[in-house]
Structures are given as C-alpha cells and as structure tokens.
C-alpha cells in the first residue's frame, strides 16, 4: 500500500527517514544575497568552478542555491557536515552520494524549473523526480507527435484543446521522472515509454519498450509543488510513504 501526503508542510524539528519513507522537499531558487553567500561556502571546488561558467548572474546564484541546499538537506539526514559530502555520477550523469558519504544509505534525485527546485530522498531504492513550470510552448503538439507513444498520442489528440497543454506536461514529467530514476536520461527513446497523461486517468506507467511486465517494479506519483507547476515521482518498488516538505 502506498501512503501519500502531498500537503507541503514545514518539516518537523527532528528529521527521520525510515526505510519505507519518501520525502520530497520544495523551495524557491531565488534567495537573498546573504543566503547565497552562506550556501556557496558549502560547495566543493568543482561545484564553484561550475557555478562560474554561467553567463547570467541569476543562473549562477540559482546553481549555488540548488547545490547548497542539496548538501544541507542530505547532510542533515546523515548527521554529516554538508561541505564534506562527496558525489559521484552515473554513466549518463545521474548524481549519487559517494559510498564514503552515505551512498549506501540514501538515494536522491533533484529537479528544477523556473523558480522552484525539488529534492526527492529515500533509502536504498531508485528514485527520480521531475518538475516543470507550465508555460506556453508554440510547438508542443509537434513535440508530442515525436516523443509520445502511439497510445499516448491517441489519448492526447482526443483531449479538448484546453486540456492539451496540461496533459503534455503530465506526460513529460512522468517520463522524465522514470528516466531519471533509471539513469537513462534522454538517451532512452521517449516514444517507447508509455505513461498516463489524461486528467481522467490514474497516474500509471503502462509499458517500457512495449513490455508490460517490467512496469510492476515501479510506481509513479504526481503532485503540484506550487501553482503553475506540475511534478512527478518515479520510485522503485511499492509500499512507500510520501511526505512533502517546504524548505523555509
């Protein structure tokens, strides 16, 4: 049984993450200058170097906030100095904690869009999260024709016009969450991944490369982190409990 609590609450004083727990954190990337400076002190030299590559100051600050808060949250769960955490990266760039930093204990994923960033954290199971800011896209129907499965396209094109943009982002975030959980990234053919997208459909992963048997390993969950955004989680296994926290 999956227990879902998608009300965005302030976190408790004492954090705990049990084996069946899945926690999703949400916060704004636009922070005060003093906050950005504090978070910058937590970054590794490699992360600071990456931050300097951004052309726009706004993007540089958002990168610092995103990585600094990731370190803060993970360090709090692990009882470890956030600046000492070390990360490693999978074949397609998926970040994980190094074994020496608790990689065998915590699994995490992050996503950002527009002004928000999400962190999804659990124990010893693969997890992926995606967030999208719902905005007009002039060619979103053409993108759907290229990236959606045949079943998805049939459902999508039968929807009323005023539901299509929302359905597009539903589909996109669910696919992205799964691809991030598995570490495939965009190298996986998106039209071979079949998910629900209509507002009237339960959130569901139907098939992977035409195979329905493998989807039983995964669970999908949608949520709304803030007005104008849509989010999705892909989590390995079942029987987990979702809680959503607002970082203040």
TrEMBL record:
InterPro entries tied to this protein: 4-PPantetheinyl_Trfase_dom (IPR008278), 4-PPantetheinyl_Trfase_dom_sf (IPR037143), AASDHPPT_N (IPR055066), P-Pant_transferase_sf (IPR050559)
GO biological process: lysine biosynthetic process via aminoadipic acid
Domain 4'-phosphopantetheinyl transferase stretches: 127-221
Domain annotation 4'-phosphopantetheinyl transferase N-terminal: ranges: 33-120
Top-rank taxon, per record: Bacteria
A single GO cellular-component term on record: cytosol
One Pfam family here: AASDHPPT_N
Keyword annotations from UniProtKB, A to Z: Transferase
Record carries keyword Transferase: yes
GO molecular function: holo-[acyl-carrier-protein] synthase activity; magnesium ion binding
Transferase is among the record's keywords: yes
SUPFAM superfamilies tied to this protein: 4'-phosphopantetheinyl transferase (SSF56214)
Family the entry assigns: Belongs to the P-Pant transferase superfamily. Gsp/Sfp/HetI/AcpT family.
PANTHER family documented for this protein: L-AMINOADIPATE-SEMIALDEHYDE DEHYDROGENASE-PHOSPHOPANTETHEINYL TRANSFERASE, PHOSPHOPANTETHEINE TRANSFERASE
Name of this chain's protein: 4'-phosphopantetheinyl transferase
